[in-house]
# Entry
Amino acid sequence: MVTGIIPTVELHANTPTNHQDDGAPVKLNTIVDVTGGIHVEIHHIALFGVAIGTPLTGPKPYSTEAVASFNLRF
# Structure
């Protein structure tokens, strides 16, 4: 039934392109986060994935996040 297992690691840098320091009450900063997970291939036609992520730099708008996905090829 399982035809493949694919580990994944992602590193994201979220950088605002404007309004970084325009005197607004909420300042937009660059946030770097890392996400790690796994995709499981089922019968070569479906992918099920789960992952957990956390920010590495502040400000930290969240402590952890969870992601789940399912893709069916037809």
